[in-house]
Write a structure and sequence with these properties.
Elements lengths: L15 H12 L8 H12 L4 H11 L3 H9 L9 E6 L2 H5 L2 H9 L4 E6 L11 E3 L2 E3 L4 H8 L4
Parallel strand pairs: 1-2
Antiparallel strand pairs: 1-3, 3-4
This protein binds FE2/S2 (inorganic) cluster.
Length: 152
């Protein structure tokens, strides 16, 4: 029985541009596992599909067991055609540092769906969220308002 090790899986044919974006997402996180949710977003938004080959690819990129990637993917919905999904970390560090206020502020914004995730790998700079595959940490009310308004 595989005890938490990544399993071998068939590899999908990954367009070079998609692979480049995926590697850039992984590089943006202190730990590759932190990129798991943004990579799921990337695959789902770019391919509109999900299967074991994509799970294997994401597992390899993040050092996460395939079964874990599958489980997380199954709990997600395909992105809707309109609106934007923002993943807000509600892990322990982020909860202590104001994740609830971040969620409440984002839920006030039209056309944004807030999805709670457990740890984006940026605990030391909590609270954190991921938007369009990019990590935003050290969120303050002012910074969050600027992000919502489209500023960086
Ligand atoms: S608990 Fe939020 S990034 Fe780890």
């Amino acid at each position: 029985m595989n005890q938490g090790r990544p399993e071998a899986a068939a590899r999908p044919v990954v367009p070079e541009e998609l692979a480049d974006r995926a590697h850039a997402i992984v590089a943006a996180y202190p730990e590759p596992k932190g990129a798991l949710h943004p990579l799921l977003d990337l695959v789902l938004s770019e391919t509109g599909s999900w299967d074991g080959t994509w799970a294997g690819w994401v597992a390899q990129l993040t050092g996460t067991p395939v079964v874990t990637v599958h489980g997380i993917a199954r709990s997600r919905r395909l992105p809707e055609a309109d609106g934007e999904e923002i993943a807000v970390c509600t892990g322990l560090s982020c909860r202590w540092m104001g994740a609830e206020a971040v969620c409440q502020r984002l839920q006030e914004v039209p056309n944004i769906r807030v999805v709670a995730v457990n740890c984006l790998g940026a605990c030391s700079a909590a609270p954190a969220m991921a938007r369009n595959g990019r990590l935003h940490d050290g969120l303050t009310p002012e910074r969050l308002d600027a992000l919502v308004a489209g500023d960086r």
